[in-house]
Design a protein that fits this description.
This protein has about 425 residues and is an alpha+beta fold. It is built from 12 helices and 17 strands. The protein binds flavin-adenine dinucleotide (FAD).
């Protein structure tokens, strides 16, 4: 059997290595720490949690809870260790970070089939490779990845506008229209009069922002400015920027509105809309509070909040196939946050998915894609479906194929139950053939 080379002993790399080893497949797991540290890792442990010690909710009313349940069904190492090292935090799965990472490290070191090598990898040869080097991939390897994917397909920066669930938008207050009366009405427009605009602007410039990390300073603002920064340069600045009303007509007054926030659909099913030009470093609670001053968004429910931070990820829709292999070279697989998912659990989930299909291919069987109506499957579909403004995504109900049930909780229960049933069926399917 061939050896699999995994670069990066984080959440995704550790999960992937463990799954392969359990099936008797030799793994060389390369981790550059502690020799070379990233700007945020502090220990030599594998699977170190760099920030929060929470892996988010365990409730299946929550998308992250559904994802975790699916991963438990597929015997995820990361989930098992997280459950074993859990600390009290209500319905959140929070862990003792030291025990969590040291336990994952022990379990990996104990595996006969895993050879853990503490070294930075800067280039790759002809074997089978899994690149799981995360949001802070070392710069030498980044250069190599650029060569493999093409210069324009590796990003170092995440500048994401908030995304809102469609069913939380007040459709009576928004206007479907494109600028300059172009056909289609693709955008939802939230018109503001002067009073509404002034109130919103004041709240925006006074809202609390996230502190900037030293290592992010050089990169931030290179590409685009956060909306609150633009707003602080003058009262009309955003009215001439992302909130410009040009080309739009308020049918009530038959005039151009004073300002307009545009929402653009995020997916084919139109279950989610993003706020155009709203890249922000506002704290999440502040985003919810301030953006609800926008007419039509008074009850907005956020699929994800806006962020701007350093993040290495590839243009997966262009570069990867549905199994997360490079289209140009199927011996190179990608896993974890570098694929364009975001979050500890999502990253580990991609390591798990890659491992299960690597096992199939190494055994000479066909790899199997996940059903779209599972949370893992939806994430994979999202990051591998063509998208002109591809940005990282975390687990959320908006990416699952939906059903016409109005009540949000009933709908979520159905979607969660369907996802769990389907992951069980998929597990049967992928493990049936020996
Ligand atoms: C500052 C920051 C805070 C975050 N906070 C959270 C949070 O609170 N909650 C959350 O859910 N997510 C958070 N994330 C996002 C993300 O979930 C984590 O970064 C997660 O650890 C990603 O998992 P991963 O396995 O893809 O990468 P990582 O866990 O980062 O693992 C990648 C590993 O690859 C190693 N490596 C890199 N380059 C090389 C190389 N060339 N050779 C060998 N080894 C290499 C690194 O040392 C690292 O150990 C945060 C990200 C950042 C950057």
């Amino acid at each position: 059997m061939p050896t699999v080379n995994i670069i990066g002993g984080g959440l995704a790399g550790s999960e992937c290595a463990y799954q392969l080893a359990r099936q008797g497949i030799n793994v060389q797991l390369y981790e550059m720490r502690p020799e070379i540290q990233t700007p945020v890792h502090k220990t030599p442990y594998l699977a170190e949690l760099v920030c929060s010690n929470s892996l988010k909710s365990t409730s299946i009313d929550n998308a992250s809870g559904v994802l975790k349940e699916e991963m438990r069904i597929l015997d995820s190492l990361i989930l098992r260790v997280a459950d074993d090292t859990r600390v009290p935090a209500g319905t959140a799965l929070a862990v003792d970070r030291e025990r969590f990472a040291s336990r994952v490290t022990e379990m990996i070191e104990r595996e006969d089939y895993i050879h853990l090598i503490r070294r930075e990898i800067t280039s790759i040869d002809d074997g089978i490779w899994v690149i799981a080097t995360g949001p802070l991939t070392s710069s030498s390897l980044s250069k190599k990845i650029k060569q493999m994917t093409g210069e324009e397909h590796l990003y170092f920066f995440d500048a994401v506008s908030p995304i809102i669930y469609t069913d939380s938008i007040d459709m009576n207050r928004v206007v479907k229209a494109n600028r300059y009366q172009e056909d289609g009405g693709d955008y939802l427009n939230c018109f503001m009069n002067e009073e509404e605009y002034t109130r919103f602007w004041q709240e925006l410039i006074n809202a609390e922002c996230l502190p900037m990390k030293m290592f992010e300073k050089g990169l931030l603002f290179e590409r685009c400015k956060p909306i609150e920064e633009i707003a602080r340069t003058g009262k009309d600045a955003i009215r001439f920027g992302p909130l410009r009303p040009t080309g739009l007509v308020d049918s009530g007054t038959n005039k151009m509105p004073y300002a307009a926030v545009q929402l653009r659909t995020e997916n084919k099913e139109k279950t989610m809309y993003n706020m155009v030009g709203f890249q922000t470093r506002l704290k999440w609670g502040e985003q919810k509070r301030v953006f609800r001053f926008i007419p039509g968004l008074e009850n907005a429910s956020f699929v994800r909040y806006g962020v701007m931070h350093r993040n290495t990820f590839i243009n997966s829709p262009e570069c990867l196939d549905i199994f997360l292999r490079l289209k140009k070279n199927p011996n190179v697989w990608f896993a974890g946050q570098i694929t364009g998912v975001e979050g500890y659990v999502e990253s580990a989930a991609m390591g798990l998915y890659v491992a299960l299909n690597l096992i199939k291919t190494i055994k000479g069987e066909e790899p199997q894609s996940l059903p779209d109506d599972t949370m893992m499957g939806s994430l994979v579909r999202y990051i591998t479906t063509p998208n002109v403004s591809f940005q990282p995504i975390y687990a959320n109900f908006g990416i699952l194929p939906t059903i016409p049930v109005k009540n949000k909780w009933k709908r979520r229960h159905f979607l969660a139950a369907r996802a769990i049933e389907n992951i069980k069926a998929w597990k049967e399917k992928i493990f049936l053939k020996k």
